Amino acid sequence: MLKTILLTISVALFSTLLIFYAYDISKGVEIPESSTRQGVQDMIVFAAKTLGVTGSWIVGTLATTGCIWYTINKYRNEKSR
Questions:
Q1: Residue 53 and residue 67: Cα distance in Å, rounded?
Q2: Within 13 A of 32's CA, how many CA atoms are on the CB side?
Q3: What is the rounded CA–CA span in Å between residue 74 and residue 70?
Q4: Global pTM?
Q5: How far is it, in rounded angstroms, from Cα 68 to Cα 10?
Q6: How confident is the model at residue 53 (pLDDT cuts 50, 70, 90)?
Q7: What is the pLDDT of residues 6-51, one digit of tens each?
Q8: Among the residues of 1-81, which ranges form H helices?
Q9: What gap in Å lies between CA 47 and CA 36, rounded to an integer?
Q10: Which of 3, 68, 54, 62 is nearest to 26 (CA)?
């Protein structure tokens, strides 16, 4: 159960970063380079540039909602055993 909760939290954080990066890119704000996770940041920035602000909102909302739904169903299934 802890793994699914951690998965949901990490997807929510990823979605938040995706939306913030997309918003900053649309406003022309320079995104500073990460000192520890440059590869991950590059992937998120690429996705944000590709999707735009609206697409990032859609993807972020769907991903977070899907993980929350999965976590709730997993919890219900474990409880009913």
A1: 21
A2: 3
A3: 6
A4: 0.82
A5: 11
A6: very high
A7: 999 999 999 999 999 999 999 998 888 887 888 988 999 999 999 9
A8: 2-27, 38-79
A9: 19
A10: 54
Q: Which of 49, 73, 50, 65 is nearest to 15 (CA)?
A: 65
Alpha-carbon Rg for the chain, nearest whole angstrom, is 15
For residue 60, the model assigns a pLDDT of: 94
Written as six digits, the tokens of 6 are 């951690």
- For residue 13, what are its two tokens? 């954080």
Residue 28 zone, left/alpha/beta (φ > 0; ψ -120 to 50; rest) = left
For the chain, which residues make up each domain, given as ranges? Answer: 2-79
| Residue that is written with structure tokens 């998120």 in the block | 44
